[in-house]
Structures are given as C-alpha cells and as structure tokens.
Specification:
The strands form two sheets. Strands 4-5-2-3-9-8 form a six-stranded mixed beta sheet. It has a three-stranded mixed beta sheet with strand order 1-6-7. The protein has a single domain, classed as HesB-like domain (Hypothetical Protein Aq_1857, Chain: A, Sandwich). About 20% of the residues lie in helices and about 40% in strands. The radius of gyration is 17 Å and the shape is globular. By secondary structure, it is of the alpha+beta class.
Length: about 120
C-alpha cells in the first residue's frame, strides 16, 4: 500500500504562524501606558504560564530588555515582547484592546485556545 503524503499547503494551514498580531487599539493603549510610566524604552511583555482555571494564563507587564529567547513585535512604534515558550502557545494570536459598556481590557484572540474561562485570562489547548 503506497504512503499517502500530506501536501505542504495543508500542513501550513494547520500550523499557526509564529507571529503575534497587535491591533491598532492595543498599540495605542500600550503607548499611552508607557508614556505614563515615563520610560520610552519599555515594552509590554506578554507571557503564558501554567495556571488559571483553564490550564494556562496570560500575564502582562513592562520590561525594558529583551533576552536571547525573546521575540519582539512592533506596531506603530509600540513594542510587544514574548518569550519563545509563550510564543508556542500564542502563535497566530492577536493582542487587542477593547473598550465597551462593561469596561476596558486587553484581550487575546488566540487560535490555539480550545477553551477559555469567562474572563478570558486563562485558556486550554
């Protein structure tokens, strides 16, 4: 029986790219927060760690350095940094900032998440 090969295009379609998208509103909000901190060298660090009610949780903080295993993404002059292990779980995701009647918050639209908690701070893969 001959082996059945999966076309490269099908494999590429299943594997999200190792990039992190940043919406205009997220870039604008991060720039505002960095301005409030008074240190233009800051970047928003986005991490993923074990925990939360769904298995993994997102973390946000400011950092002024990027390490060897970090990836830096830029939008409108605003830099977002994440480590290599976190990027594995964030590949193809988009960081957004949403303001509505319920409040304002950063949101991550993550194609790797199979489930998430109600508040959106944790997810499962």
């Amino acid at each position: 029986m001959p082996d059945t090969a999966i076309p490269d295009s099908a494999i590429a379609a299943e594997t999200p790219p190792r990039i992190l998208g940043v919406s205009d509103s997220a870039a604008k909000r991060v720039a505002f927060l960095i301005e409030q901190e008074g240190n233009p060298a800051l970047m928003l660090r986005l991490t993923v760690s074990g925990g939360g009610c769904s298995g993994f949780q997102y973390g946000f903080g400011f950092d002024d350095t990027a390490g060897e295993d970090d990836h830096v993404f830029e939008k409108n002059g605003t830099r977002i940094v994440t480590d290599d292990a976190s990027l594995d779980l964030l590949a193809g995701a988009t960081l957004d900032y949403v303001e509505d009647l319920m409040g304002a918050a950063f949101q991550i639209k993550n194609p790797n998440a199979t489930a998430s908690c109600g508040c959106g701070n944790s997810f499962a893969v």
